[in-house]
């Protein structure tokens, strides 16, 4: 795939739109920063009733500026990474055209999913805003800018989710036609890594949410809704593309174990009479044990450790912020 990260969106060879480029992420960052600066969200002189300090509003504006731009940039990176993983898998596929079809699905993800992504994102945005209270607000410009920022944030989340669901579907189809090798599961790492990319993107977005606590006050309500969305999404993107591969591996393992058991039964219950018969029995038993221990999920210890690290770092950062807040309060109060 050629790199067309110049302006706006790029197009694939078939004419379908790709995800926005890095230049679009920078443009969105600049536009949101200018918007919140003009509405006074970066330096509020008055604050809404729900806020405790001006820094809380400033932190919210920073978060609403950085996270959407980060998600657009992450979409560009994730598409390139997914296409590279498809290429790594190409030689292991039993169907010659499967890799090309998967690449086309990944490239056209935005075109295929923008409508449900928009609807889902705007619905999530409405859950994080108070449009009725905004009509009665004494600070309509400031509160309106924060509400609009929330809508833009969750709209971006919805679009990115749709794009990555399309990529996950492409890898799920590859998992249906990839050649199996129970005893060498590392050959299937490219398919497993597709979900790790999405987990890393989710963890990065969660790491930016503590900006809402710029006034050094930890508020759980700033984090519970992102967690309710992020944790199921991470599990989905990690497991769903691999389920066909797990199912096929399990069926292959069971079939091979049944064949081994049949061979063992033909040897009979009596001890081996010759050295050759004893060696054959030991080989069959060793192979059976190896098959029983074979992983049916192509997730190695290293990949799982990386996923766990990605998911643990954001809560640790939040806990660290809360701990610092308590320590500062105690020092200032003493």
Secondary-structure-derived class: mainly alpha
Count of beta strands? 2
In terms of DSSP E residues, the strand content is under 5%
Mean of the pLDDT scores? 84
Strand order of the largest sheet: 1-2
Q: Helix amount, in percent? A: over 70%
Distance between the termini: 61 Å
Can you summarize the main beta sheet?
A: 2 strands, antiparallel
From the alpha-carbon coordinates, what is the Rg to the nearest angstrom? 26 Å
Question: Keywords for this structure?
Answer:
single chain; 334 residues; mainly alpha; 2 domains; 11 helices; 2 strands; 2% strand; elongated; disordered N terminus
How would you explain this protein's 3D organization?
The model is unreliable at 1-17 (pLDDT under 50). The chain folds into two domains: 9-252 and 293-333, no CATH class; 254-292, no CATH class. Helices cover 71% and strands 2% of the residues. Strands 1-2 form a two-stranded antiparallel ribbon. It has 334 residues and is mostly helical. The chain is built from eleven helices and two strands.
Strand and helix map with partners:
Blueprint: E1 9-11, E2 17-20, H1 22-38, H2 54-89, H3 98-107, H4 109-127, H5 131-135, H6 140-177, H7 189-208, H8 224-239, H9 243-267, H10 275-293, H11 301-333
Antiparallel strand pairs: 1-2
Helix pairs in contact: 1-2, 2-3, 2-6, 2-7, 3-6, 4-6, 6-7, 6-9, 7-8, 7-11, 9-10
